[in-house]
Amino acid sequence: MEPTDARSSLRCLIIANPAAGQVSQRLAEDVAERCAVLGVAARTRWTSARGDAARIAEETVRRDQSGDAADERFVVIVAIGGDGTVAEVVAGMTRAAAVALPHALFVVPGGTGNSNYRAHWGDRPWQEALSTALGGPRVRPRMLDLAGIAELDRVALLGAGAGLSALVLEGIAGVGSAGAQRLQAGLERVMGQFEPYPGRVVVDGSVIHEGRTVFANVGGGRYRAWQFRMMPHSLLDDGLLDVCVADAAYRPADLQAELRAGSHTRSPHVVYARGREVVIERTDGAPLCFEHDGELLPQTGSRVTLRTLPQVLPVLCDPETDGSGFTGHPEAGRTESRTGAGQW
User: Fold this and answer.
1) pTM score, two decimals?
2) How high is the mean pLDDT of the chain?
């Protein structure tokens, strides 16, 4: 997507989800006011039910592509909510885009995990990020990768997971805390009773893991639940999916500390690989416990196939970020798959 002249054509549509954990009327007003200070016209639409964010985003893109509403064209869609809200907005944008999107996404963190925001802007306050994104003479979107989930006809933005990482979403039911603490509490609740499942993971046609499985994750962004560095080497726009799988010998007691540091990939019981197509399955034919972008999908069957959709989503994010939420070059010394598939 070509840089857009922010002063002559830029408009913002703010999609706000009041059900997200940290979204309020005041937050939405602050976003709109900051857009106005930057000289960018904005209007806000609130969601009222699941699917509204996707519908609003899709309607906006389709209308603008028709060329019938040039005066109302919105170039930047601002998603205020958590990772689930962002995933809905992206789903709507991509469903509507028959050609290159005339829009770009900007994320304001307002949910439980907010891992998409961290992948785009790190620890910078959203106010500073918005000024950086919209405050210059040009808006320069960065084209990020998505993953298509073949069996579900859906796209994943942040990442997807099976096993323990998906069961955490069941564990947060009834947890009273908010933000990252809520997801941590969910993890602690399910770890004690979790049983590894019989599984297989295939990357670009090569089996990288087969046997009892603690988790199998595909990404996407490096962070999940803001604090857990599940995919420590993943890049936002390299056209590849990172894959991280832990076998049954991996100690659950080590999980939280090692995920925060990203050191779990050094374990001999963890396989880390990369590729363009990833198949995750249960080998006993039972339903696979699977999530993407923080949404638990209980009816996936026993197998899911994810394929990279390279550089299809225009996003306003830190142009210097490497996908970790921090600027600079990716780390050296990356972990290789023990099988040789998708090695670094």
Assistant:
1) 0.83
2) 82
